[in-house]
Amino acid sequence: MLRFEDIRARDSDRIDRDFLNRRYRLIAESLAALDAGLASVSSATDQLVELGLVRLNEVLGPALATAQAAAENGFLVATSSTALTLTVGLATTLALDEGSGRALFSPTPIVILTRMGSNDPDDWAAFRVSSYNRDNGGLAGEVLAVNGNIGAAEHDDWVVSCSAGLATSILTAATEVSNALALAQQAAMDATAAAATAEQVLASGPVASVNGQTGIVAIGIADIPNLTAQLATKAASSHGHTIAEVSGLQAALDNVDGGTY
Description:
This protein is of the alpha+beta class. The protein has helices at 4-7, 17-73, 100-104, 164-204, 227-232, 249-254, and strands at residues 77-80, 91-95, 110-115, 124-133, 138-147, 158-162. Strand 4 (124-133) and strand 5 form a beta hairpin.
């Protein structure tokens, strides 16, 4: 390292070419050393920057790719290839597929299950989450409601969506529909029971036949016992009577104004 004492000029020094050259040489050598050190520092800086960029790419690259994939496919959405036939009350575990969806997935208490292979908006199921293991993607819970044809067969193309508010609204609507259906079914059962009771009453009640006849009954004179004989004793609709044939008529006439008729 160049020191000031090495190039200081004293009163006794003879200022000539050798005096100046010696000091210039020391300064030049110091500058050369500084230049070599600067080159080394620049090289080390370049290596440090390159290493930092590599580390950033290794660490942030996958994270950025995951975030980009999630932004394209939707946040809080994951898929599962677990083969299931959904029924209300089914307690099961869906294994979420590996990838960006599972990495960012954080389930709400109730999630909605739809299918990638179905475009029918009426095909969905409500799933209550009991636990979630992010390491293996295990989503355990219970099926609360099944709508449309999503439970008609076994499927393995599930889309799991976190939407607590929507799930609550859908579940409320499903409950109301289920209650209305239950009331309608109960009314139908009551009507069936009432019809059966009426049929039983008609079958075992006091009127089982009309004059010994069942089914569609037509009643004629001959079907009523003794009716013909009784009608035979009845007077004709057109007939005449003498005074003597009317009881007491003659006596009544004799007493009218004391005359005789």
